[in-house]
Amino acid sequence: MVAGGLLHDIGKIEAYTSDGMSPLMTDAGRLHGEIVIGHDLVRGLIDDSPDFPPELSKRLRHIIVSHHGMREKGSPVVPMTREAIIVHYCDDMTARIGAVDDAEKATPPARAGRVASS
pTM higher than 0.70, yes or no? Predict the structure, then answer.
């Protein structure tokens, strides 16, 4: 689960580039997507390690391909193991917290004497 949490977005290193101000999709990112690229990167590293346990390979690669949680959100498959479900929900939670942080930054501070509603 820890390895899956660390590697679930590894495909982004080849799916995106930057012009210095904002991320841009690479040709590989547009053609294959970050999930497929990440799976291929991890699969290649595993294939280069002949003693890597086959069951661990299968479970780790499942975390990567299922971490978006639903096919509608880009996952080729839905999470089907405990580890994959945990990584999916942690990834989803960090995205939601990031959205809250962005909204707070975009909201002007309350003036003195006024109480912000919750």
Answer: yes
Q: Are 86 and 74 in contact (CB under 8 A)?
A: no
What is the pLDDT at residue 117? 57
The full length of the chain comes to: 118
Low-confidence ranges of the chain (pLDDT < 70): 111-118
16 strand-pairing partners: 25
Angle (CA) 22 84 24, round 5° = 15
Cβ-based burial of 37 (10 A; exposed 0-12, middle 13-18, buried ≥19) = buried
